[in-house]
Amino acid sequence: MSTALNRTRRSFYRFLLVLAVFLVLIDTLIISQVYLNSIEHEKTHAGHETRMFTKLIAEALTRGDYSSVEYMLTQWARERQDIAHIVVTTANGFTLAEYRRETEHSQLRRYHESFEYGSHGKAIIDLVLDVSDIYHHLTQLVIQLILFSLLIAGLLGYFLRQVAIRPLQKEITEHRRTGHLLEQRTRALAASNRELEAYSYSMAHDLRAPLRAITSFSQILKQEAADRLNDEEKDYVDRIVNAGQRMAKLIDDLLELARLSRSELQVAPVDLGKLADSILEQLQHASPERRVDYTMEPDLLVQGDPKLLRVALENLLGNAWKYTGKTAHAHIELGSTGTRRNAMRIFYIRDNGSGFDMQYKDKLFKPFQRLHDAEEFEGTGIGLASVQHIIHRHGGTIWAESQPGQGATFYFTLPD
Amino acid sequence: MKTLLSQLAQLLALGLLLVNTVSAQEALTLGIHPYKSASKLIAAYTPLADYLAGKLGVPVKIHISRDYQTHIQLIGSGQLDIAYMGPASYIKLVEYYGSKPLLARQAIHGKPEFRGTIITPLTSPLQSLDQLHGKRFAFGDPESTMSHLVPRYMLWKAGVDANALLEYRFLGSHDNVALAVLAGDFDAGAVKEAVFRKYAERGLRALATTPALSEHLFVTRSRLAPQRVEQLRSALLALDKTTDGRHIMNTIKPGMTAMLPVQDSDYDNLRGIMDALHEHGTLK
Predict the structure, then answer these.
(1) Min Cα–Cα distance to chain B from A90, Å
(2) Residue A83 domain flag
(3) Contact A67 B173 (CB under 8 A)
(4) Which of A89, A110, A135 is the last residue of a domain?
(5) Is the alpha carbon torsion for A134, A135, A137, A143 positive or negative?
């Protein structure tokens, strides 16, 4: 957002700079044109006057009035402030009359006119015009004009800033403030979350001791008082022991989930195919009587925490293994869709097991939420919650598609 | 009756005017020939007029004559009391009206005489006046002593009459002659020595020099009272004795250092030249 502002600001200043340079160039161009015109005009004017003056002195010389030339020349040169030097030279090179005005300027223009007088007299009049007045005047003018242009550009810039950049800047400041507030809230939330996790962990841990007491003493009671209990009473004790064991498993799973939440992410390249291979081998080993077909796409490389990804795949493949338990020709498939979501590859694990009803898909990844009862398929309802947790921690997402009896497909994204 | 009365009144007025004129004749008139503009001349001679008035105890007015000829007539016929004039004019004055009482002649840088120069460009091949055959010659004013009369006489004596020249022109002033020769429009020209010196370094040299002639002088009308003439003469001759006097002379002409005694014979050499020119027919 602020880079956008900077960009806007940069282009804005660039525009002003270009405008200023353009105006200065235009000013200079105009004034230099005016200068050339003025000089040309001055020269033409001086030319006219010189020709007139030439006629006058030619007449005087024809009359034989040589000494009046100096006087006339001086008068004329004094009249015209811009004459720096004027000299009348006769054909034999004699300087008949000369007038020179002291000038330190270098802006001089020359002009000369030859003329005849009497029956055979020839002379030439040389004129040096000092145009530095025009030059200085126009130099001042161009400076004034440039200053004026810069002022205009400056004012324009000021108003544009007020109209365009200020509101944008304001909006950005507002945005930044909101962002800051959000970040603060997130941090506070994370802190309280961590606290809560720590609290759950310690609570789960503390629950294990009394639970162990309950199951252990129930088993002792069953052994010690076996002859005094009737069959119905024995069944009650068994139920207590079973319930206690299931609760212990639940607590273990809870602790595992908490552990996942708390551990740091150790990112490394992970081959999902290899990982799945070793997990399925374990599952086969645990239930050697099962016959499950599986297909696996090669080259499923991702960047992630190997331990966490193992837990996630254990859960997903474990589920597939579990829910195909009653399927005639069980089949599990691991692959990628070849498409991407949020710039991450989409992977999937598909089974042809019992599947689930899509209306419960929101419950799927919530802890302790089960779509099947424990009698049908054993489990605590923690697994998919852990999987989602792990995928989220990698920046990915997870979702599922299924129909009851048609198997289920779990999609998830991971960075590669 | 009425007309008679008005005629009487007119007569009376005329009579008063006459009385006024008679009493104004007590004042002296100093006449100057018009060698410069009237305003410049009045400015130049006012200190002298005031000085003379102070010395004589009567007002001295300045009169600028219309031209040289009129100037000679005015002093000759006694209408001017004092007149300042050049040597040639003085000779004409004596010739037409007889001798006049002389007051003083001016001295420029101490010398009561002046010369003329026949000039030619520095680069000119001319060495003597007789080489001016078939050349172009520039004179100043036809009436001018140094830029026409004396040089004309010298040319004639050197065997170069006016019609032996390719061309000759009167350019009006000494300065014009010098500049015209410098400009290469004439092979030679005649100027007074001071003008030659003024332009010499711009490229002129002297081809010949005229004899020394007596300077400008002050004369009076014939019938001015002798003691007045004496007062005027001593006043003029005393000018170089005081700072004020020297200042008065410098106002008339820069370089004028004194008024010196003068006599008619000082102008004999010029008179001889002019007579010769008359005989020759150059002057009428």
Answers:
(1) 6
(2) yes
(3) yes
(4) A135
(5) positive
What's the CA gap between A275 and B273, in Å, rounded? 151
- Residue-wise DSSP of B148-164: IIHHHHHHHHTT--GGG
Specify the CATH number for the domain of residue A129. 3.30.450
C-alpha B97/C-alpha B101 separation (Å) is 12
CATH code of A384's domain: 3.30.565.10
Of all residues in chain A, the one with the smallest CA distance to B167 is A119
Task: Return the residue of B nearest to A93 by Cα.
Answer: B183
Structural domain span for residue A390:
266-414
Strand partners, A331: A293
- The Cα–Cα gap between B53 and A348 comes to 143
Residues of chain B in contact with residue A90, where contact means CB-CB under 8 angstroms, are 182-185
Q: Do domains B26-112+214-265 and B116-210 have the same CATH topology?
A: yes
pLDDT at residue B147 tops 50: yes
- For the entire predicted model, the pTM comes to 0.56
Distance CA(A228)–CA(A234), nearest Å, equals 10
Residues from A contacting B (CB-CB < 8 Å) are: 61, 64-67, 69, 90-92, 94-96, 118, 120-121, 123
Interchain proximity B183–A65, CB inside 8 Å: no
Record: contact B184-A94, CB cut-off 8 A: yes
Q: If we measure between CA atoms, which residue out of B61, B40, B52 comes closest to residue B239?
A: B52
Confidence at residue B273, expressed as pLDDT on a 0 to 100 scale = 93
Interface of B with A in 135-174 (CB under 8 A): 138, 169-173
Residue A198 resides in a domain = no
CATH superfamily entry for domain B116-210 = Periplasmic binding protein-like II (3.40.190.10)
Chain A CB within 8 Å of residue B198 CB = no
User: In A, which residues are within 8 Å of B172 by CB distance?
Assistant: 64-65
Q: Which of B36, B173, B185 to probe the A interface (max A CBs under 10 A)?
A: B185
Count of domains for chain A = 2
SS3 state at B137? strand
CB of B179 within 8 Å of a chain A CB? The answer is yes
CATH superfamily of B26-112+214-265: Periplasmic binding protein-like II (3.40.190.10)
Taking contacts as CB-CB distances below 8 angstroms, the residues of chain B near A92 are 121, 183-184
Residue B180 to residue A94, Cβ atoms within 8 A: no
Instruction: Tell which of A94, A119, A120, A124 to mutate to test the B interface (max B CBs under 10 Å).
Output: A94
Contact yes or no for B172 and A65 at CB 8 A? yes
Instruction: Walk along chain A (416 residues) and give the pLDDT tens digit of each residue.
Output: 567 778 877 888 888 889 889 988 998 898 888 888 888 888 888 888 888 989 999 999 999 999 899 899 999 888 887 888 899 999 999 999 999 888 777 778 888 889 999 888 899 999 888 888 888 888 888 899 889 988 988 898 888 888 877 888 888 889 989 999 999 999 999 888 878 877 877 887 788 888 888 888 888 888 888 888 888 888 888 888 888 888 888 888 777 777 777 777 888 999 998 999 889 888 888 888 888 888 888 888 999 988 889 888 988 998 888 888 888 888 999 999 888 888 899 999 999 988 888 888 778 887 777 666 655 666 667 788 888 888 988 889 999 988 888 889 999 999 98
Residue at A144 is within a domain: no
DSSP, residue by residue, B39-61: HHHHHHHHHHHHHHHHHHTS-EE
Is A161 within the bounds of a domain? no
- Among the partner-chain residues B121, B169, B203, the one whose CB lies closest to the CB of A64 is B169
Number of neighbours of residue B67 by Cβ within 10 angstroms:
11
At B215-237, the pLDDT tens digits run 999 999 999 999 999 999 999 99
A399 has which bridge partners?
A411
- Respond yes or no on whether ipTM tops 0.85: no
Give residue limits of the domains in chain B.
26-112+214-265, 116-210
- Please give the backbone phi and psi of residue A130, each rounded to the nearest 5 degrees, phi first: -95, 105
Nearest CA in chain B to A68: B176
